[in-house]
Amino acid sequence: MIVGVLGLQGDFREHVWALQKLHAETILVKTVEDLKRVKGLIIPGGESTTIGRLARLTGIADELKKRVSEGMPVYGTCAGMILLAKRIANYPQQYSFQMMDITVERNAYGRQVESFEVELNIPAIGDKFKAIFIRAPKIVDCGENVEVLAKHGDTPVLVRQENLLASSFHPELGDDLRIHEYFLRMVGVKYARVY
Ligand code: GLN
User: Fold this and answer.
1) Where does 3-187 sit in CATH, by number?
2) Which whole number is the average pLDDT over 178-187?
3) Residue 133 Cα to ligand 1 middle (Å)
4) Ligand 1 centroid vs 23 CA: distance in angstroms?
């Protein structure tokens, strides 16, 4: 059971390290062949336009849509969440995989210098999760079939729709691996608790 991290652009290495710390078998996904080997996929933060373009060029986009419709779990962080979203409010023409029934607004929390950290209470995994937001997208609308797992103020920041999980923030940049563990449970992969 291998969990992949989409390795086209962005902070994919940090996700690989997080999965390795949990002793989950992982590979970087850079081709359709790589994608065929994995049972779950993380789409990292980075630039959603670049990742989307490369995913189409490599053929990964089409294969990913097929796998997701067959039930493969996918977790998108930040730019990864933008790529999962059905609608991008402020860039309606931008390409995305259009898989999750959410509307996001890119860069809605401000620029790089306005990046911030908050402690979230996430009933599904526990409290005091340190969430790091970097030029993060904001979820401005969710469909009925979307479960809100965490909010910051009134805004959902961690959401799930069946086999899809998405966060505005970057759990791979902190030491707390509880969201990665949650995703590994969605995939059905064994892991070792590290705390
Ligand atoms: N601002 C980026 C985008 O719109 C996302 C930022 C991130 O992934 N940290 O693609």
Assistant:
1) 3.40.50.880
2) 98
3) 10
4) 28
What are all long-range contacts of 60-69, with beta carbons under 8 Å and residues at least 24 apart? 60/6, 60/8, 60/29, 60/31, 60/32, 60/35, 61/97, 63/32, 63/35, 63/36, 64/35, 64/97, 65/97, 65/99, 67/35, 67/41, 68/97, 68/99, 68/163, 68/164
Q: What is the pLDDT of residues 123-143, one digit of tens each?
A: 999 999 999 999 999 999 999
The pTM assigned to this predicted structure is 0.96
Euclidean distance between CA atoms 27 and 2, whole angstroms: 7
Domains in the chain: boundaries: 3-187
Q: Report the C-alpha gap between 143 and 7 in whole angstroms.
A: 29
CA of 107 to the centre of ligand 1 (A): 7
The catalytic site residues sit at: 78, 170, 172
In contact, 102 and 149? CB cutoff 8 Å: no
User: Ligand 1: residues whose CB is within 6 Å?
Assistant: 45-48, 78-79, 82, 106-107, 134-135
